[in-house]
Every structure is written in structure tokens, then in C-alpha cells.
Amino acid sequence: MSRRQTLTVVSLSLALFLTLPAAGQTPEELRDDVLALTGPGTEGRAVGTPGAAAARRYLISELEAAGARPLPGQDGLGIPFRFISGVEDRGSSLRAGGHKRFGSDQVKAFAFSETGEVRGELYFVGYGIRVPENAGVTYDSYAGHDVRDKVVVVLRYFPDDVEDETRSVLNRHADFRSKASAARDQGAAGMVVITGPGSEGAGELAPDAFDISVPGSQGILAVSIDGAAGGRLFAGTGVSLAEVQRSLDAGEVDAGSFPLPGFATLAVDLERTPASGANVVGILPAADGSLDPPYVAVGAHYDHLGMGGGGSLNPHGPPAVHPGADDNASGTAAVLALARTVADSPLARPVLVGFWSGEESGLLGSRAFIRNDIRPDRLAAYINLDMVGRLEENRLIVQAMGSSSVWPGIVERANVPGGFDLALSDDPYLPTDSSAFNSESVPTLNLFTGTHTDYHRPSDTADKLNYEGLARIARFTGLVARRVAESDPVPEFVQVERAPETATSRVSLRAYTGTIPEYATEIEGLLLGGVMAGGPAETAGLRKGDVIVEFAGTPVLNIYDYMNALEAARIGEPLTVVFLRDGERHEVTLVPTARP
Amino acid sequence: MFQSLRRVSGRLVFVLPIALGGGLVSPVFAGQGAEDESRFLSRIRRLTVEGKRAGEGYFSPDGKEMVFQSEREPGNPFFQIYLLSMETGDVRRVSPGHGKTTCAFISARNGDVLFASTHLDPRSLELQREEIEFRESGQERRYEWDYDSHMDVFVERRSDGELVRLTDARGYDAEGSWSPDGEWIVFTSMRGMFEDELSERETRLAEIDPSYFGEIWTMRADGSEQRRLTHVPGYDGGPFYFPDGSRIIWRRFSEGGLVADIWSMNPDGSDQRRLTDFGAMSWAPYVHPSLQYVLFASNKLGFSNFEVYMVDVAGEKEPVRITTTDGFDGLPVPTPDGTGLAWTSTRHGGEGGQIYLADWDHEAALAALRLAPARNQPTETPQ
């Protein structure tokens, strides 16, 4: 055998994925689907809009063409769900003691407030923060004060001049909902929030912050009032709000809780606007023709941000179509491709294909589906695809590996022909639909090709997708689904312990760094998937691929450490970021700005 | 210093970097520029996922199978041997499931799978339990790999699935691989520790470092004609036949065990030639199917920093670095068609090594070898 010949005589081991059965859809077919989902008439596919309905019609007709049947008990492939699309404040008011009634120009109800009217004595409780006992910081604005049936008055934010570690803990318990919950749990009848004279935006009303995913009330009447009204509440106490805030900011918790003169009547009139959206769900029969559960479930959300709105990272631009080609026409097209492939070569179990709406508004569709439309034990497992159109450097992120002990073995076997440089993580608590299934004890897997600077912007367009990669990911998903279908018994669910503090709200984060974290969590540190153009991180010299290992003196091992470290950041105050680039440690100074 | 480090396996005597530097982080985007591994490696993919660690993946001659070792059996903290279909991804355990195993290889003649195992040791289950308890205690072991004297070479016959024992000498017999025609096996044996007359110094060494007695042996496929090829103090191990069967490649440690270099010899043990003089721990050599160069691992850049290198098959030039990603990279094995490279790496940042596969640019490798500077010392033959 000559030296040359040895290179050619032996059969190729590397192009094997081409020889697999059910090779699936071509990149061109996937592009056609993405173009249909982002094309004219779809207008960003926002939940409950005609654009989403147009995309839905396309998905239903494609699934029907593949031979998908309705879920038993459903009339068709479309399964509607209801949600609250918004809240209107129809006139809230506060009457206090001898003062005049403050009307809707000075009083604004929180979207999470109860509707109704309460009366009670007014009681000031400082920043209105109660830190749970195990949080490492002792802070209780209510300690030693009885506020039962009273209307509490609290300051917005949290004490400013405390050390960073304390700041970061206080910050986590300082959002409006947390304060409302604390007041409710102390038996208060209502909560009134003032942006103190010493705070950023002194005297302003709280901004609109309707959370479509948690549209219900927090179980207490809650409003913000403007500075003028706030000042009046302190008339006759002998102290000014500014003085009180100064001592609170200096760390004197006790200085800030005392009764205010007078008796208050707080009235809130909120109307919650009902709306509806729809998921698309079809069943593809098993190889033996069976339609009986358990199903292997595969899904993707098909909705996006419409013309922008709250979820857009381009909030100051004029309304523009957010096509969401990667997020998540890519996953939708891949699941559609898988459905067509399964229709041609069925698996050992029937496959449930789900296209969810309202994901961008907080997993509305998938949550409604798993709660109302199917028993979770009818699902052998759920595989989710969300943002899988930007495969770079052959790197596929596979998340929620910890949700079943079968995943490492299945992913290993699927990736031999799949051929990806895998980035694996166990955490199933993800900001995508798989979380809704994990909450109902269904083993989940989420595929993801990483975030990018077009994320949630009008520039997330179809021409930027890697369709060859997308076709490979669809095939890989099919191989995973095939092995789930052949698992007997069905994969068992593993409850992964939730990393601490991930559940708390981040809405009160005020400092902005312009970093785009990557979600490959096996890496120690925080890998940057990118930096926002012109943002503090880019200005500091950070770039895609850097791994942040220390932020403002806090070691960063993962994204949670990073989020917590971020809370200690203050606008305009330089901090040190230690990061690895090409394996070498570097330090830069970063100056956070206000969120643009 | 070396004594306190962890040895992980026989053919691989490597020092796992994570045992030393908790701070090692693997940036996904390695440095750009001329030295970047992307000049040789593309479309990198991860082959093994399940279990704590995996390594030593060797292809069948048609490239359709890979045999590897992995710690993934519940209740067994040691390696077992698995056969992976490169076409479907199906994985099957070949070894008995209990005891320690290592270093498997697939025969070109009949697909028989050769590996070393301690499963006949009556204490093997007890040793598994002891190891698990030891790990749970949080202590650090001096040697994770202890060159178990119960280690012997076995073959799983494909024709009937029978497990056949090929060696029964007292002392570690392992690190075996087939000749390309499937008629011969080259392996490492430490039986000299028990069979030879030892000096006072060697008696002391036998207690602390059995690997000192490692020598290269050959035998027929049925275990007959066992014959010793090397006679130099220090650990000789990790032998493989050249893809055309013309020679044997292996690594030879210095007596002190800190430095190792790559050597080749005729299948009868004659004409022993040194290919590297790299002043580092260079081991796990494997000859590319083109017969033009040898891939190996070395800690040239730092005691715990192993990377994959290659050197021309005559050893006339300095080695060329292949991998540039942080973490351990070693045990390189080209695909039989020469267009791919499999190796063991901790680049994912996980605890143990896993097997990776990439497309291999053979032409770029040849070009880089042409440009490599001449080795500062000529090839030499000992004794």
C-alpha cells in the first residue's frame, strides 16, 4: 500500500451523518419555512395579533400536510389560550387626613395592585424591605412595628450608602412586588410608594411595568404617588422626608419607621384586558400506527415581539417589525422539518409537535398547554428549540441535561452522527418554554446556538441564519427524539435544585454594562457572547469570547454570580473586571451607565 | 513532586490538569493567529458525554467503530471498555463491568476487541467500593493508577462473544494493540518486577513505582510466543504498530520518570530510534496513516499543560504544536483514512477528559512539518 493510497482506500468515517436514515430536510427547505414565518403579513408574530395568526395558519397547514392529527379532545391543531394583555388604571386616588384628595395625576396604581378601596391609618416604614433570615444580611423595615390594617408608606429603591454586599442583597428584595408582598404579609391594607427626594428621579411616579406573564394582583392595593403628595403626608410630623431618607441611607433602619398623622382612604380601579392566543399542537403516529401516549414531545415558540414593545432591545427606535428569524422562526422551522421527517419515517412512539405562542410575554402558551390541555405524564420528554439558527464554530448549546439521567447517554449517541462541538449544562430553569414543562416534572432538553447583537432587535433577519447548521440541528433533534422514543421505560424526571436567587426579580437593576452573556455554563466564569455596540463593556475593551472571572471584586463562576455581582454595580462608578482572553488574565476598568 | 501528582492510566500516564489548577478555564474562542489549532483542526465535535470521563478512543480499520474507555458504570469508579458505532452512535460495553480496565484496540482481521482488565481479581468489587469510599472522604490519592499486578490482557472474540485471556504473568500486562494484520499484539508488561532478579535499589523502586519495570513485549494473537523487546531502565509503554506494520512506535520514560520521549523500532525490537528530544513528558504517540508523521502529547509548555504535537516519522525535525486550547489535550488518534483526528480533552471545562473528533488538514500538517526547524540532536541508537 503506498503512502498516498492509505489516505483514500479506507472508507470515510467522517461524513457519516449523510448516510443516516431519514436524512431530513435540506437547508433550502428550512430557509423557505423561515421566510414564510418572517415574511409579509406576519409582522413580528406578537401573541394575539393578526401577524401571529398568519404564522399559525401556515404552521397548521404544513403540519396537516405532514399528516399530523389533533390532540385527542381537540377539534383541530390550533389550541387557544386566554391571557391578560394589559391593565388600565381607570382612576386611583388617595385621601389622607385633612389633605385634599390626590387624584390620578398624582396617584398611579401598580399593574399588580388589587382593585378596591381601603381605609386605615398611615404608617411610614422606610424602604419597606424585609430580607429573609438566611440571606446573610439583616434588614427589616417592619421590625417592632405593627402595621396591621394600616396603609404603609414606603420609599422606592433601597438604602444607597451601604457596602456592596449588602446592596446586592437589599436590591433583590427592593422591587415593587417584593415590597408589596412584605406589606401584605405584615397585614397592611395598602401600600403607597414615594420616590424619595434623595433618589434618582426624585418625586417621580413609578414607571409602567405590566408583567404579562404574571398579570394577577399581588394581593394588596398598591400605588405610587408623586413627590408633592408624598411631602404632604409628612406635614405635621416635625421631620422632612429628605432627612428621614438621609438617615435611612446611612444604614439606620430604625430611624425610618413611624406612624404618620391622619387616616387614609386608598382607592384603586384597575381593569385587566382579556385577550387570547393559540398554540399549534399535532400528533404524528408511531411506526406501528399508534396514537397512544406517552408522546415524545418536540416544540418551539413561534411568536416574537411584533413591532417592538417592552421586550425589544431597540425601545427608543420607532415601532418596527421585529422579524425574529433566529428567535424563533429558526426553532419553529427545525421542528417543522422534524415533523415532516417523522411523518415519513415514524418513531417507536407517537410524536407530539408543539408550536407555542406568548413565549416572549412569559411562556404564556406553553404554560397554558401543560396546565390545561394535557396530563404531564403523557409526555415521555420534551425537547425545545429556541434560537437555533446561528450555529457558529460548530458549537451547539444543549441545556437542561440535568432533568433526566438519560440525557448524557442519549446526547452522546445522537451527537456521534450529529457532530457538534457541544456545550452542555444541567440547569433546566431557562427563560424559554422548556421551563414550563420542567415545572410539571417532564424531562426537558433545550437546544440553543447562542445569543447575538441582533437579539430582540429589528435586525434579527432571515438572511443572517446558518441554514446548513439549522438542518443539522433538526437532524440531531430527530436522533434525540428517536432515542427517547426507544427508551423503555420512559425517561425518569430528575428535579434539579434551583440555583439560589435566580427567582428574584431583576427589574430593579439600574446599572448597565452592555454585556451579552453566553449560556454555556460548563465554563468556569462568564463567557461573553458579545458586547453591545457603544456600551460600557465595549468601551472598556471587552469583546466576544472573553470570560469574566471577577466583577467588582466578586468572583464570577457562572451567570448567577455575574447577575448578583451586577447588582452591586453603581451608575458612573468605575469597577474592575478581570477576564480571561486566550487563557490569559486581563483587567479592565468598566464604568456602568444608566440603562439606555 | 511527581510522586504527589495523579497518574490516570497506564498508556496515558498523564497528569490531569484539573487536579492541579482549579483556575484553568477553557475559553471557547482560542487565540487567533498562526499558531491557532484551527490551521489543522476544523469542525471540532464532542464524541463522548456520558459518565465522568472517557478517553483512549481507537478506530476500527474501516472507521465504522471506535473502542474507548469510560468511567460510566454505576458503582464502578474505574474505566470499562465500550464499543461505539460511528454510524449510529450506539454504544455497547465490551468489558465485564467490574474491576479496572484500560487500553482497548480493535483487530483488523476479525474485529476482536483487545483490552486489559483486573476482573479476575477476587478483590475487584471490594476495590471498587474502597475507591468510592476513598473519593467520598475527599482525600487525595498519590496514584490513581496503580499498575495493578492483576491487570492482564483479554480479547473479546467477535465470532462468539467469548472473553479469552491472553496473559497470566504476575504483574501488570496492559496497553496492548494489534498489528495491522491482526496476527500480533504489542503490549506493556511490568512482570520483570516479579520475575527478574532485582538489585537493592530496584527492590525499593518496586514498592513505590512499578512503572519503572514497564517494558515492551509482543505476542501472537492467541497469546503464544510472548517476547520482550526493550531492556532499558524506566517505563517503556504505550506501543502501537505503524499502520503498515513495518515498525512499532512507543514512548520511553527516563529512569526518574519525569521526562519521556517518542521512539520507534522494528517489530523484533531491533533498530530502536529516538524521534524526539523534547525535554518534556512526551507520550501517547500514534502514527498517521500516511506514515509521514507521528502525533503525540507533551507537556512542553508547562508541567500540567498537555497539548497535542506532531513530529516527522524520522524525528529529524522539532515537533509542531497542534492544539492551542486550555485544558488537557492528549491521546491523539487519527482516523484510519487520515482525514480526522480524535483525542482526549478537558476543553469543555468539565471534571474529566472526554473524547473529541475534528476534521484534520493533512496537507497543512505536511506543510507545517516541512517548515519545522531541524532537531538539535541527530537520531541515535542506544547501547
What keywords describe this structure?
heterodimer, A: 596 residues, alpha/beta, Aminopeptidase, Glucose Oxidase, domain 1, Pdz3 Domain, 3 domains, eight-stranded mixed sheet, 24 strands, 25% helix, 24% strand, globular, B: 383 residues, mainly beta, Neuraminidase, four-stranded antiparallel sheet, 9% helix, disordered N terminus
Summed up:
The complex is a heterodimer of chains A (596) and B (383). Chain A is of the alpha/beta class.
CATH superfamily of the largest domain in chain A, by name, is: Zn peptidases
How many domains is the backbone of chain A divided into? 3
Task: Tell me the number of helical segments of chain A per DSSP (H or I, 4 or more residues long).
Answer: 14
CATH topology of the largest domain in chain A: Aminopeptidase
Structural class of chain B: mainly beta
User: Alpha-carbon distance between the termini of chain A?
Assistant: 67 Å
Oligomeric grouping of the chains: heterodimer
Strand content of chain A: 15-25%
CATH class of chain B reads Mainly Beta
CATH topology of chain B: Neuraminidase
Number of strands of chain B: 24
Any low-confidence stretches of chain A, pLDDT <50, length ≥5? 1-22, 500-509
Strand order of the largest sheet of chain A: 1-10-12-11-13-16-14-15
Give the helix/strand layout.
The complex is a heterodimer of chains A (596) and B (383).
Chain A: H1 6-9, H2 27-38, H3 50-65, E1 78-89, E2 93-96, E3 101-102, E4 107-109, E5 116-125, E6 151-155, H4 164-172, H5 176-185, E7 190-194, E8 221-225, H6 227-233, H7 241-249, E9 257-268, E10 270-284, E11 295-301, H8 325-344, E12 351-356, H9 364-373, E13 379-385, E14 395-399, H10 407-418, E15 421-424, H11 434-438, E16 444-448, H12 467-486, E17 511-512, E18 515-517, E19 526-531, H13 536-540, E20 547-551, E21 554-555, H14 559-567, E22 575-581, E23 584-590, E24 593-594
Parallel strand pairs in A: 5-6, 6-7, 7-8, 11-12, 11-13, 13-16, 14-15
Antiparallel strand pairs in A: 1-10, 2-3, 2-9, 4-8, 5-9, 10-12, 14-16, 17-24, 18-19, 19-20, 20-21, 20-22, 22-23
Helix pairs in contact in A: 2-8, 2-12, 4-14, 8-12, 10-12
Chain B: E1 41-46, E2 53-59, E3 65-71, E4 80-85, E5 91-93, E6 101-106, E7 113-117, H1 124-136, E8 152-156, E9 163-165, E10 173-178, E11 184-189, H2 192-195, H3 200-208, E12 215-220, E13 227-228, E14 236-241, E15 248-253, E16 260-265, E17 273-274, E18 282-287, E19 293-298, E20 307-312, E21 320-321, E22 329-334, E23 340-345, E24 354-360, H4 362-371
